[in-house]
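Input record (one chain):
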Amino acid sequence: MMVTGTDTGVGKTVVSALLCLLTKRRYWKPIQSGTEPSTDSDWISNLLGRDRVLPETYRLRNPVSPHLSAKIDNVEIKLDSILDTLSNISDSLIIEGAGGLLVPLNRKEFIIDLISKIPCRCILVARSGLGTINHTLMSLEALAARNIQPLGVVMVGERNPENKCAIEKYGNIQVLGEVPLLSNFERHTLLSHSQNIFKHEDRTWISLQR
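The corresponding structure, as predicted from the sequence alone:
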């Protein structure tokens, strides 16, 4: 299962952690831009344990767009390298993308191109507040243009019933969960949240492989 988002900093890592706790899957972020003071994989490792986290394929030093961070590090991000790594993994995973769908990875490819090549379904993480309807619907259109049908949307932030309703109506998609702004990131607290957040009447999506 791939976790992507409408933007950078939208809450993908927290949603990924919640899904890892709920499904007991391992976590993998193949492309990491920025390593100081710590990475998303480091944070998940502290939460779940190092054995639950796979190493990044690309661990880039600068917290900028992956294509630029790779250029600074004199590295070229190749989708085949990521797919080769994935082909050797038998576990079911929660895979976190980098940034939004149209974040460039190299001279011609974007995160959405990686999503289209990974044999799993994806979840779109979106903010709950002002502007999210436009950002979410545009992201859904971009996915549809690549023939990618996401499992649903997870909204992060203060509950906004009107925005949730609009996204479900105009995007013709389910909002699978609403994640509040959290201040306590201890494991037992997040586990409790994961069980309460993802309680949509149809939870078959949780058991889907990869």
